[in-house]
Amino acid sequence: MMLSERVRPRKIALLIGNEQSRVQLIKWLKNWKIGSKAVLLIGPPGVGKSTSVYAAASELGYSVVEYNASDVRTKKRLSEALSGTLENASLFGEQEKMLIFLDEVDGLSGRSDYAGIEFILEFIENATVPVAMAANVEDDPKLRKLSQKSQLIHFGPVNEDLIYIYLKTIAKREGLPVSEKALQQIAVACRGDVRFALNMFQTLIGDSLSSFQTDKQFFSEASAMAAILDSNSLEEAIARLRQYDASPLEKVRAIFDSIVSAKSVSPEERARALELISDADILLRQINKNQRWRLLRYLDRYLALALISRKLKAADSSIPWNLRLAIWNDGRVTKEFLSELPEDFHVGKNEFAVFYLPYFSFYFKNRSSDLTKFLQKYEFGDSEKRVMLKIATEH
Q: Rounded to 5 degrees, what are φ and ψ at 255?
């Protein structure tokens, strides 16, 4: 069993960090009655959102039925899962107390999920049992709809001093011979993610605790990327990736940025490198979903294979990731417009981009009903609506 599961707190008071948020959650569930709002927990991974839900439910006598919203993302699948749960619950009688937990509701993104989020909104408004939801990000347009219908509780990264004390307590209780320096390094490297800290702790203890205690200090971002991209062999790149003081997701993003910004890489080489980055991203998702943290060793291998021998340079990291992601998303949506609309209006892509798209955007700016009909006609969703309105404000 993973250490993070073995030491998972069963009582709300035994968690660390986010004290006020945990108090809010207990109060919400204790005072819940039919007609009360659902609760939406928002915060980064590994800070206690899911554990708090289970601990609060256990203390107040509720059974938890959990669904990962990114796995049941369409209206049909959500309806089948949630309706079936409520029907089965009635078999146990009125004394059975149930809480429905929808994790990763920010996974409901994209055109195919448009009806899924609408179904959740309808479901929580008419729910006859408490509904708790969790999300890692807050700035998604769909989550703003959920926020208006839910009680929001924010969770933040856990203080590294608290994580250090927590790890030290576990090490003492489990009889693990680990140095304070190692615990301090883990507490800093996990960046407020308690689950990641525990899994890093277990992996290093199980594999190479002694080397972790004596290894060189982790690289900073700038020196890490320069050293990784300058590696002369696969083994050297992997070793330097493992010394990079960043979360797995940040590593994937950093290597991705370097590949897409490279000017001296052929289209074929870039495509192959991006395929490996895609494989790494899929692997990371599976690791997070199934808590198989020992597979992290293979993540660095995928990333090293993506960059080795391609003469890449570190991308400019002065642009915040959220802004870079927004630029990428806007470009993707604009390409979608140009792939579907010009043919209907019998014009070329360049002409549509220069003349038609700005005109359409400006026309729909103050005509919300017409915009809704236009989006529905082409099966566009919130992303397309956001970009069109953004273009309208620029003209």
A: -70, -40
Domain identity same for 14 and 136: yes
Pairing mode, strands 150-154 and 98-103:
unpaired
Asked if residue 264 and residue 169 are part of one domain, the reply reads no
| Prediction pTM value | 0.52
What is the DSSP annotation of 351-373? HIIIIIHHHHHHHHTT-HHHHHH
Distance CA 296, CA 286 (A): 10
What residue numbers bound the domain in which 220 lies?
A: 216-318
| Residue 199, C-beta contacts closer than 8 angstroms, at least 6 positions apart | 2, 3, 4, 291, 293, 296
Cβ(387)–Cβ(333) below 8 Å: yes
Number of structural domains, the chain? 4
Whether the CA torsion 280, 283, 287, 288 is positive or negative: it is: positive
Q: Are 242 and 170 within one domain?
A: no
CA distance 47 to 136: 10
H or E stretch covering 387: helix 382-393
| Helices and strands, number each (H, E), in the chain | 20, 5
What are 144's two structure tokens? 């703003």
Cα separation of 39 and 36, whole Å? 9
Are 14 and 134 found together in one domain? yes
**Above pLDDT 70, what percent of the chain?**
72
Same domain as 204, residue 328: no
| CATH, residue 123 | 3.40.50.300
Instruction: Check whether residue 285 and residue 234 sit in a common domain.
Output: yes
Rounded CA-CA distance 264/306 in Å is: 15
Residue closest to 44 by CA, chosen among 166, 233, 195: 195
> Which CATH number do you get for residue 173?
1.10.8
The C-alpha angle 252, 256, 259, rounded to 5 degrees, equals 145
Amino acid identity for residue 382 in this structure = D
Q: What is the pLDDT of residue 90?
A: 43
**CA-based nearest residue to 313, from 226, 232, 233, 240:** 226
Statement: residue 330 has pLDDT above 80: no
pLDDT digits (tens, 9 = 90+) for 67-100: 766 554 445 555 665 555 554 444 344 446 889 8
